[in-house]
Write a structure and sequence with these properties.
The chain is α/β, with parallel strands linked by helices. It is 43% helix and 16% strand.
């Protein structure tokens, strides 16, 4: 099948919510439209959402005390169903397995439309955000739901081998393809002017973390690493771009370790402004072991920023040791030793920066989009064959 596809994307999380899922959706939609495909996004209403895209349809949603910043869609959905039926979609692509993702799955079933689902997140690592229920019970229910949902679609896309292995451990047998999410194209900055604007003295070296400040992100190891590294190299500073429910605890840890004067909590930054921090920093540091990919690592490399990251999950899969960074075990001393080694060896830092630039050029959004479209065409073709067989049987 050739030509322009009509694609419906369903997700409980989308911009202006800022996380890996929303950024990957935005990157995919942008490139799909650049290639001439028609894309409609079905997601939840958000108070900060701009009504500038006529192809974005937002379900009624409510924010609860334990989902602050993440409005939840609620039924009835029949008005949105009418909007959905105005378009003759070729394929549905869901990015979350919850309310809106579930709606997408059911509408795919009822309308005979092929469906692809991307598994972005190790959801059972986030059960501590749900109050009143025992965590063991919640993990069990999430495992059952993961198995049901991803075995109910035609094809699964995962951003890393780690995510695919996690699905297979949940007995998901649906055909799957690993397609890493591409970072957005690089913007160009004058690094010297940028560092001056951000108040970074020439003799300081900035270790950069970008992401939510959350318990599951393994933040304690990051701060323990920084405390050890600062003792070995007084020119180092740690900047954290992002916000989250663990910020107060992170501030407490920095103070308790005696490094509060060398840690900067930048806070929430709009997506369009994050790039300047990548361009101004010297090394990217990442500590989470619950990521399926760690898109921020790829974004950092777009700016030639090498990374030292903790092994585990999918965040470290894009790192080739000695080429564009290093992946280390989850130990603050080992983490610190590698960071200091890179920052004190100018020739090694330049080599890793060159490697990061090469890696980012070979994993662009156009290549990612081509692979996703190949999956779409595959499931559309298989659905057509299945429908023909059913007609013959009848």
């Amino acid at each position: 099948m050739d030509g322009r596809l009509r694609i419906a994307i369903f997700s409980d999380s989308a911009l202006p919510i800022l996380n890996g899922v929303s950024i990957s959706i935005d990157s995919l939609i942008t490139e799909l439209r650049n290639q001439g495909h028609s894309v409609h996004l079905f997601t939840a209403r958000h108070p900060k959402a701009k009504k500038s895209d006529p192809n974005t349809h937002r379900f009624r949603a409510i924010e609860t005390p334990w989902t602050k910043g993440y409005p939840l869609a609620f039924p009835p959905f029949y008005r949105m169903l009418l909007k959905f039926r105005w378009h003759d979609f070729d394929v549905i692509h869901t990015h979350t397995p919850f309310t809106i993702g579930f709606v997408g799955m059911r509408w795919a079933e009822s309308h005979g439309i092929p469906i692809v689902a991307t598994y972005h997140t190790l959801y059972d690592r986030y059960v501590h955000y749900i109050p009143y229920f025992p965590r063991r019970y919640l993990r069990f229910k999430l495992a059952k739901h993961t198995n049901f949902y991803y075995n109910s679609v035609d094809h699964v896309i995962t951003p890393s081998d780690a995510a695919l292995k996690w699905l297979r451990r949940h007995s998901v047998t649906t055909p799957a393809t690993v397609i890493p999410t591409a970072a957005l194209p690089r913007r160009f900055f004058d690094r010297s002017e940028l560092r001056l604007e951000l108040g970074i003295p020439p003799d300081q070296k900035v270790l950069l973390y970008v992401g939510r400040l959350a318990k599951e992100k393994n933040m304690s190891t990051l701060f323990e690493m920084a405390a050890i590294a600062f003792q070995q190299d007084p020119s180092l500073r740690l900047w954290l771009v992002g916000d989250g429910p663990y910020r107060a605890e992170c501030v407490r840890m920095a103070r308790g370790l005696g490094i509060g004067d060398r840690v900067r909590f930048v806070g929430f930054v709009p997506r369009a402004e994050v790039d300047q921090y990548y361009a101004a920093a010297d090394l990217f540091v990442f500590c989470s072991i619950t990521e399926t990919q760690g898109l921020v690592v790829q974004e950092a490399m777009t700016y030639g920023l090498p990374a030292v990251a903790i092994l585990g999950g999918g965040a470290s899969e894009g790192i080739a040791d000695g080429v564009n960074g290093f992946a280390v075990k989850n130990d603050a001393n080992t983490f610190a030793d590698q960071v200091v080694r890179v920052m004190q060896d100018e020739s090694l830092l330049v080599k890793l920066s060159d490697g990061a630039n090469r890696e980012s050029r070979s994993a662009g959004s156009e290549s990612m989009c081509d692979r996703v479209v190949d999956v779409y065409r595959q499931v559309i073709s298989l659905k057509g064959i299945t429908n023909q067989k059913e007609l013959v049987v009848v």
